[in-house]
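Ticket #4471: structure export looks truncated?
Reporter: QA, pipeline team
Priority: medium

Steps to reproduce: submit the single chain below to the structure queue and open the exported record.
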Amino acid sequence: MTHTETATVITPEALLEHWQGHRRLTRKTIEAFPEDKLFTHSIGGMRPFAAMITEFLDMAVPGLTGVVTGKWQRAEDMPHYAKKGLSATKQELLQQWDEATKEIDRLWQQIPPERFMQTDKAFGRWEGTIYFFILYWIDNEIHHRGQAYVYLRSLGIEPPAFWERS
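Actual output as written to the record:
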């Protein structure tokens, strides 16, 4: 292979499906929590899972908006994002999750394939390639979902199978 050729390991469509598979599993994890424990239960000083979910929401749509537009605004600085902060109920949190899922699908369609390999400075702070940022958002969600699994087990609740992403 010459230096002008590129190797495609995964298509943008496959990467989106991978991410959305993790999001479907995270949604099942949210559903598994009793209402009160979702917002209050923690171990070892870690945040409750609802606070972690808000972090995911604050990264996904604002991040993809930055990918598409090149303008990286934090959720609280995006007037059209309607950031509501920490939801008051599990139903509200699930609604925000579902709205973000649709917006991710919408924004994804606007990303030109060459954009994934470009370097940018996310939120004016972190420099890297676009694919790196997307993989980070996925990894961050997996990491915190693992914490939520520990929370669920401590409550005597079997978490969803980690491989079940449908």
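Status: closed, not a bug. The export was complete when the record was re-opened. Leaving a note from the reviewer for reference: The chain has one domain: 12-154.
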